[in-house]
Amino acid sequence: MAKLDLIVSISLLIVALAVFIFHVRQLPSSNEAETLKDYTQYDSSICLWNDEVCTSPPPPDFKGVLGCLSQSGVLVYFLKQGDSCAACQLSPGIVFPADAPETSAAVKCFAAHPEVEFRTRSGGHSFSGTSWLRHGFVLDMARVRSIRLVRGPVGDLVEMGVGAKVGEVYRALEPHGLLLSGGDCPSVGIGGLSSCGGTGFATRKHGVLTNTVESYQLVLATGHIVNASFATHRDLFHVMRGGGGGSFGVITHVTARVFPLEENYGLIRLRITAETAGKWLHYFLNLADTLTEDVMYLYTYLFDDSLLCQGAIPGETSSKVGRNILADIVDNAKTAGVSISFNELYRIKYPDLYKYTYGENAFPDAIKKTLASERDFRHPEKNRHSGSMSGYICEELPLEIAEELTDYFYNSEERKNLEDARLGVNVELFGGRKQAEERNGVYRGRNCWGIITTYPIKHDNPDTYSALLEFQAGFWRIVRPYTRNSYRGYEDRCHGTRADGRVREMMEFAFGEDKERVMRVKSEYDPNDIFHHDLSVPTLECYHSGKCKQFSN
To answer: Are 68 and 112 in contact (CB under 8 A)?
Structure first.
């Protein structure tokens, strides 16, 4: 009896120790719809499809997949037309799976009926419209948005449903004194962000989001639910980090490292005159190798009449360290011939970075409840940033090229045709902490100095939009020879897409020497290419035969 009591006592001690070492805490979620069976109770802009509600019949090619989804217990929704569900907009159909098993059931139906196209959507933030289509189905992961904090002996982790917006994750972690090294735009979804890169306010100190990912839970083309990590499905895990979304499976959850959130931060801000923009851009990119990781991030924005540089330093000593860093930047920039009209250091809290970057209400507005009908990034016609482009700067940008580029931006004849439209330009500085090679996956920004991103803004008519795209093309004709690849989530159509048949050009530009490995994994896990869109990774057969599926949706 005494021996049995001893065994029981030891067992209880082991259980208690395990709970202490590996503690999982469910964090508050902003989505009250996670447990609802009928999603229309949460989203009033959609209608539940059935023969009694929708007076219009579905398209003929939908019959098979609708029957399969119905038999599997998966509900299908359509956007409401006006105030009534009687006149349903029957395409695209929308599926809102509540969890991984329901996602699996939907994927099996889509795989069994390849005559109907489908796309996967996480945050709906795709600038190139790859998460939407006109005819087919959208597998919308908006309901899979739980956030769990996992405290363990090797560091803290957060498990995120891919329907969660990164801003929701930041808000959930903040009371626990923790930070995710994710994107700087709080409305972006976790799925695309964690598979494309994820640069943001902590990149120089902790790496991009793909550097911090420990595992993905995803549904494969067969419907199987697997975990891809450093221990299981390692090749798949490798290419998913930087390979982009919608190519290898449907991600349901992402687990990533989190880091201590400092109490205070020092915010650096400088205003540079347009007349010396080229000198500043040349000087700015050279800072990548000289600034320490104390500077968590450093951006330069090109505005209509000047440039704004902004960055942050964490910690209680941020004011003193920040003033020294700011003084060095200003002094050296002036030596390089840069004219600085304003410079200042502010003491702020981390969430204030969004206020200074996107405006007073940027953070709460970005993570508020969003209806399906209000998700603007649905297809190119609804996307005001459609046509965005980017390029990594991985070697010195010559001064004469920097000056030619900024002179074109501020003074070219093409700019005069834009009316009230404009081209947003953001230059983000990398450098800082070096990541172990196994942490990079196939992310193409590794070991680069920074990234230049351009995005169309305020184009209200086709003529203005065409002029804006031509102005953007002229910008990239100057700088493209000095960049490498592009951020995986941007279309960059000048280097081809699957839809226009330029798949070889697209893959070479997107992945370089990694392209064969990426396509080999795609061929292994999705040989029938059921997960596809204009920018997705093709199978090897598709690539070498040149007979990739073409899309008109």
So the answer is: yes
User: Which phi-psi region, left, alpha or beta, contains residue 249 (left: φ > 0; alpha: ψ -120 to 50)?
Assistant: left
Please give the full DSSP string across 143-210, using - where no structure is assigned: T---EEEEEETTEEEEEEETTSBHHHHHHHHGGGTEE----S-TT-BHHHHHHH----TTHHHH--HH
Q: Is 0.85 surpassed by the pTM of this model?
A: yes
pLDDT at site 371: 64
Tokens at 252, concatenated = 């349901």
> Is the alpha carbon torsion for 60, 62, 65, 71 positive or negative?
negative
| Residue 278 identity (one-letter amino acid) | G
| Inter-CA distances, 125 with 58, 300, 304, Å | 28, 23, 26
* pLDDT tens per residue across span 18-68: 444 446 676 765 455 556 677 777 777 888 877 666 666 778 899 999 999
Q: Is 332 exposed, middle or buried (0-12, 13-18, 19+ CB in 10 A)?
A: middle
d(CA 519, CA 542) in angstroms, rounded, equals 10
The H-or-E segment that residue 456 falls in is strand 450-457
How far apart CA 337 and CA 345 sit, in angstroms, is: 22
How confident is the model over 172-197, as pLDDT tens digits? 999 999 999 988 888 888 999 999 99
Residues in Cβ contact with 208 at an 8 Å cutoff, skipping those fewer than 6 apart? 181, 197, 198, 199, 200, 443, 445
- Of 388, 416, 395, nearest in space to 472 by CA: 388
Cβ–Cβ < 8 Å for 372, 141: no
Dihedral, CA of residue 141, residue 144, residue 147 and residue 150, to nearest 10: -110
